[in-house]
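Hi there. Long-time user, first ticket. I'm pasting a complex I've been working with (about 630 residues overall). I'd like to know whether the download I got is complete or cut off, because the file seemed smaller than I expected. Thanks.
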Amino acid sequence: MNPGALIPIPYTWVLVLSAVLFAIGTVGVLLRRNGIAIFLALELMLNSVNLAFAAFALRFAAEGGGAAAALNGQIFIFFIIAVAAAEAAVGLALFIALYRLKETIDVDRFNILRW
Amino acid sequence: MVTYVFIASAALAVIFGVVAIAHRNPVANVLSLVVVFFALSAIYAVLGMDFLAAIQLIVYSGAILVLFLFVVMLLNIRAVERFGSGRPWQAFLGAVTAIILACLVVLGISELHPAKGSALPGSDKGTAYAIGHALVTTHLFAFELISLLLLAALVGALVLARKESR
Amino acid sequence: MWAEVLVTLIKLAVVVGVLLTTVPIMVWVERRGSALIQDRLGPNRVGPWGLLQPVVDAVKLITKENLVPEGVQPFFYWLAPGIALVVALSTFIVVPFGYDGGLSLFGHKVRGFIVAPDLNIGILYIFAIASLGVYSIVLAGWSSNNKYSLIGGIRASAQMISYELAMTISVVGVLMASSSLQLNDVVLHQSSTWLGFIPRWNVFPQIIGAITFMVAAFAETNRLPFDLPEAEAELVAGYHTEYSAMKFASFFMAEYINLVTSSALIVLLFFGGWTLPGVTSPQGWFGALFSIVVFAVKVSFFLWFFVWIRWTLPRFRFDQLMALGWKVMIPLAVLNFFWVGAAMALGIL
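Hi, the file is complete. Here it is re-exported in full:
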């Protein structure tokens, strides 16, 4: 896209999409028993947050923040992607270790510490 | 034209998002999430953040979700569970959350004044140049911290997943 | 506006047509080339010098029985070759294959012999789409309900994601030298000469990066010496064991199209693209044709290079392959990156 080109999408639409995806992700985290599926829903939530940052980058750039405001949003998204990558790697390694211990991924079975 | 691409990508993202959390087959979940990330990448591209669109595809779809797929295949996770079985109060909580968020969404549409025709100014050398420049000047400290974090994650994942050699 | 769409469609048709035509030509080159290297004749019955052999092969593949084994997961089984072909064909749209000195067609400027001239992120697009190609192999291996396919699929995807890192880091040196992500700028950076006759190709100052990229390209396209995922003697046929007839043809075509894209990338990034030392901006349609021919000759040389290496070197064992990717290629690529950075800071490059 050319810099300074008009983007005919109001930022509230992007926010709405972000909220919908966040809701879907939350429902997924709460209702799934499979650890990997919970993790997938978590990744969906992180991406919805990325979209929210993109929406606000759009808004503040249009309202006079200029290129710097748009850039800050994109830097945020960049860092969130990096952190999500690190978290996914460690979390999946954790699940592999847990599977070796308990032969299952069902999070309801990890109740050894229950009183 | 741009609006149609956005609406199509948004619809794709929502539909496949629901499939991603609801399908029984774990491989279908991962692949639906790939489609969701593809749609999100399209939305970033449409909003003028082309570098981020490429990064989203390379890192999220091309690396993180491949890792998820590997783990699913390694642990041989079968489609054994029913959706939301035996947890009624959490199902209720999930439904309440979804409704609250839906209300927030409706509030958002009605109250805030949408700035139609928002412009996304970028540097004349392109977004990649601008982001790269900002990363090594303004946000240098955070950049270095992220590299340390990735190193910690690398070592941590290696240590956690290593087979015990007895 | 319609002139613009028409010009883009023509460019797209040319690119896709050439890519799909290269596949039978490469089949012939592979079979006759391997015969040449192995001191035998190769197919020479069907048409002069066996030139119609690929046509006959295509007819055979189309008319073969379409065998779907029991117990496959149908959706993923049919999706995998589709993903492979789509990904293979989509990567070529940011590759500039000729010089455009302000030519116009139907009243609209051609804006470069490249299907998508405005994409600022040029080469990142290729990496993004190529990283989606891993899914076709993983899905093919997993959905086939076959041990050998699964092992081949997992091996192939592990190999591909490992060498993607080395490939990306080795390209960073080139991008630093040309200060742009667009492949057109990378080629234009290489269009002058040193000392009047040595072309300013990136392979000369960044030889380590060039070698790393070429090795990684071999690994990404699953060609020998890195073709353990589809090794005929080891794993029956690896991830495409259970695919017959046209589904196998899709994987086959996707592999050769990936080969053409990799060769094109090697030529563009390290060997000057469509420039020759003396000729930097050929004018008019004749000049454009000349630059396209130069590009095609260079890409053909690298296609032959891929075939040559395939039939010369033995295959890597999988642990050797992974050790090479992580412990040798990535440090070498990072070394190249440091060297380019230091050279640019000192003003050499």
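A couple of notes from our side: The first helix of chain C runs from residue 2 to 37. Chain C has a mean pLDDT of 86.
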